[in-house]
Amino acid sequence: MQWSPNLLYQSQFNRRLRKLDGMLEELRRTWVEQLGGLSEKYFILDTKPLPVLGLKRDKRYSDFAGNATPGWCAAREMRYFGYKLVMLSTWNGIPISYDIVPANTDERIAAEGVLETVKYSHIYADKGFISADWQAAIARRTGNRIWTLKPENQHLQHSHRLKRFISRVRQRVEGVFHEIQNTGRNPDSEAVAGTPASRLLNKTVDGFCLHIAAKIASHTLRLLLRRHFGINVLTFQSQPL
């Protein structure tokens, strides 16, 4: 601390960060454009649980009451109380657009907003986005083609080669979420059963949403620094281009 005697307290930092909310998103979109993300035609769509309070905790006096909801994450077989992060990203991990919705929101409804940000593209998603009618409606409205693995009981199946390809592509988004999760404080501090709710430092809806926005912006900036300047922000060492 002797080298930085005037560092802000966490509460001071949070207040200043909230004032930069709109500017932060404008910067993130600029970085996405500089990374060439808007010119891509192949994307990955997925959701991630964002717990904010324990399921059994009294929520009457919380700012999250009446906003966040109970939800179920099939991938983790986990019940939680909070939100769902739905995100569209490129194959190489650039977050194009995202939204935060209550945890009980249908994934297809949650994704409709982010899918409006790209046109005539190929979107690879998991089984939560299976619905021929919904996919057809998205195609009519945006020109986007949604690719998902088909249910095992469906007579008409993708070829074995295409199924393997979709499965490999689906694994990439986990890497995106992993990098975002490890940028600063972990946003899903209650994802592991038994983790105390007090670990979540955001006590308001606005503060929590800003926290997620800052992490995604930080992740995007890290990609920009790595690609254009060869800088690994974890060590601030120059890497070969």
Q: How would you explain this protein's 3D organization?
A:
- The protein has 241 residues and is of the alpha/beta class.
- 38% of the residues lie in helices and 20% in strands.
- The chain contains six helices and eight strands, in the order ααββββαβαβααββ.
- Strands 1, 2, 3, 4, 5 and 6 form a six-stranded mixed sheet that branches. The protein has a two-stranded antiparallel ribbon with strand order 7-8.
- α2 runs parallel beside α6.
- The protein is globular, with a radius of gyration of 19 Å.
- Mean pLDDT is 78; it is low at 189-199 and 235-241.
**Biggest sheet overview:** 6 strands, mixed
Q: Regarding quaternary structure, how should these chains be classified?
A: single chain
Apparent shape = globular
Strand content: 15-25%
Mean pLDDT: 78
Give helix and strand order, one letter per element, not per position.
Answer: HHEEEEHEHEHHEE
Rg value:
19 Å
By DSSP, the count of extended strands is 8
List unreliable stretches of 5+ residues: 189-199, 235-241
Distance between the termini: 34 Å
Structural class: alpha/beta
Percent of residues in helices: 25-40%
Number of helices: 6
